[in-house]
Batch of 2 targets.
Target 1
Amino acid sequence: MKKLDLYIIRKFLGTFFYAIALLAVVIIIFDISERIDDFLERKPPLEAIIFQYYANFLPYFINLFSYLFTFIAVIFFTSKMASNTEIVAILNSGISFRRLLRPYLVSASVLAVMSFVLTNFVIPETSKNMQEFQKKYLKKEKKGSESNLHMQISPGVFAYVESFNKRTNTGFRFSLEGFDEKGMAYKITGDNIRWDSVTGMWKIENWVKRQLHVKGEILTHGATKDTLLNLKPGDFSVDLDDAVYMNYRELRDFIELEKLRGSGNLLKFQIEKHKRIAFPFATIVLTIIGVSLSSKKVRGGIGFHLGVGITICFAFILFMQVTTVFATFGNLPPVIAVWIPNFIFGLLGIYLLKVAPK
């Protein structure tokens, strides 16, 4: 590492963390103003507010805006260097533009790795801690029911409930169907099915079982029946927000399980998984674009570079949203939808590198 590398890395990371710190202060102020009534009404301990809520609240929002503020930081301090003719002096000393780019890429890689670790391992844990605080002090427990739920719980075994009450963990008008290579092998129906949290088993009430054979069928019935199923109450009410509480391994395993069950939310979870890799990589792509744009001294100075840079950054965000919609409601594979913006803007970065002042 040369003095120039350390100078640029210090400028890059210093500007980024300073901007993120200002963002954190603004977020906290706005959130306090929004939740002050709840805090005064529920009276949570100050220690819980600071360490259980805000300490777990900030990582998500910091990571959410990290690549945007990386881009702004690059443009801001590089434009300032260009306006002070520092870039011209560096290039005139015999240092190539590619060599100048090295400390930028090192810094961007550090931030990309940080974003990857936050997204996939840290934020799921902090989100769980924040959820516990919200349940205890801010939010009332959600009570409601889901209806017409049908899923495959293991190969060839399908479960159905007409409605499921999340408060009592009870499903109504339950049926369980098993299939083999010849067709339906059995079917169990019941008026309702109830989860026993102590035994981890389901209790079917007023059940009837039809066991199908080549020569006919065997019909059995009873008042109650305890059965072990590859099914838990939370499986009846899966929401995209649940992905926030899963680390990368848990999300990957959950997607495989949802594939088996034929979940309608599968695409959304696949998009979320690929975003967790593509977004940190976007930090490097936007850094290359930012350096290429702001390394030339122009009449508009920092303001001009910031205006063009922010326009490109929001175009990137918009493009990401558009391709995500195509994946969700069209036939575009999730991995392509999430990575297309990085590829397109990566090509833009390569072009800007070629036309940047040498």
Target 2
Amino acid sequence: MRYRRFGQSDLVVSEVGFGAWTLAMGWWGEVEDPAGLVHAALDSGITFFDTAPVYGEDGAGEEMLAKILGRTRDEIVLTTKCGYDISAPRIAPGHSERPHDWNPAGVRRQLEESLRRLQTDHIDLYQLHNTTIDPIRADDLWVELEKMKADGLVRELGVALGPAIGWVDEGVEALAERPIVSLQTVMNILEQEPGRTFLAQPPVEEGRAGIIARVPHASDVLTGGVTPETEFAPDDHRSHRRQQELLDLLDKKTHVEFLAGPDMGRTIGQAAVGGLLAFAGITTVLPTCTTEAQVREYAAASDLPLTPEERARLDEVWDGGFDGFVPRIEPVFKSSV
């Protein structure tokens, strides 16, 4: 495992992180042995663990992660998030969001509750969770966040964009106007925007902030887990991908398969992670894992970096529009602006 730093902070993390949301959610398939996944991550050299209060009912995901991590807390970089009122019902049935609470006092309470559930006295990286533009522009909120840092409860601040892909203005403004060391976004080698836009922002190019890339496998298109016949169940989070969108991603996948195979020494899943790590501005990648085998496979991608020639060819594929590929459906970027 290799390691990178978030900007100029003291936070040094593994190039491949562990997204803990699958442990308590069941939205990507059931995890039979949550502790096994976490220990597989630790054994693979993973030091970056990402969770949030909304993962599981009543903060169950944070409590579960804390129990499993146990005495390894001081050996890892732990991040959780703020913004959602986890006591409120979801806005709509199914996999919808809960209401946000960005009131400074409310965010302070959220932090205190996370510290209790995580059994720790500080959060290494505290991220605004799926924020719209208003909290990014709310000076009183950022005054409170800075107080949390001054109080020693939070080491660094970040912004996690979502749900779904987009939020370009939100990410650009957060990087330009707020003291963050990380920006989390959906990015994979088939869907490189708006990730490339964020990577081109001065705070990232100048090494003052880093990108956390999630959904690196394009909802399992880049693991081999999706075929033209795949239909996800309604309670599977991947079902938000429309069939035409999956078919478009499968067509684009054929243009990046040169990165994987026995001759290359990588699986397509490892190539997906390595393709993102080829960007200097990406600090860490968060694969979605439900088995120990997946954790170990994707973690190993850190030691299988792309060659300069492979990176150049991957750029050519992107710049060439995947050899003139014509999408069945145009991607829509989410925005609150």
